[in-house]
Design a protein that fits this description.
This protein is an alpha+beta fold and 164 residues long. 40% of the residues lie in helices and 22% in strands. The chain has a five-stranded antiparallel sheet with strand order 1-5-4-3-2. Strand 4 and strand 5 form a beta hairpin. Helix 4 runs antiparallel to helix 6.
Length: 164
């Protein structure tokens, strides 16, 4: 399991006690088609108030390079500019794991939507005793929540508009 930015200092199994291990990736399987999910990404990003920096069909690129894979992969890099700017000012090393990446994976078995949680990504470059953690934790929590909402929204599809 990858380290994560956490409030707790202890990372050993004894320190965690009986707590469940923290997740690094949030994935949801959906009954929606690959095309529905990928086409819906811009609307879903807008609903959770993040912007897309780049999108690519990773599987198509791999095939062009002569390395086909048995899955379809669509990767979208996304970011909330205000959170990213504040985090990068505190720790420029976070540029190694910014922006976040949403992955839509399709196969004969179905479509999966997922994201590496920002707290897990940040844990790759930050130390548990980093003095910037108290300032970074609120930003990471917000982006973890945003990432989970984005995955849920894409897996479930658009919610019908409610009438007053």
């Amino acid at each position: 399991m990858m380290p994560r930015v956490q409030e707790q200092q202890g990372n050993s199994r004894e320190d965690r006690g009986t707590q469940e291990p923290r997740r690094a990736v949030v994935e949801r399987t959906t009954r929606r088609s690959w095309e529905e999910v990928v086409t819906d990404i811009p609307a879903a990003l807008g609903e959770v108030r993040v912007d897309s920096l780049a999108q690519m069909e990773l599987s198509a690129w791999l095939e062009r390079m002569g390395h086909p894979v048995p899955f379809r992969f669509h990767v979208t890099e996304f970011c909330r500019a205000s959170c990213a700017a504040r985090a990068l000012c505190l720790r420029p090393e976070l540029a190694y794991v910014t922006p976040c990446r949403l992955v839509v994976r399709g196969s004969d078995e179905g479509v999966t939507v997922g994201v590496l949680l920002p707290s897990a990504a940040a844990g790759l470059v930050l130390r548990p005793d980093d003095e910037a953690l108290p300032s970074l934790l609120p930003l990471v929590r917000v982006m973890d929540q945003v990432s989970e909402r984005l995955v849920d929204r894409l897996a479930e599809g658009p919610h019908p508009a409610t009438k007053d």
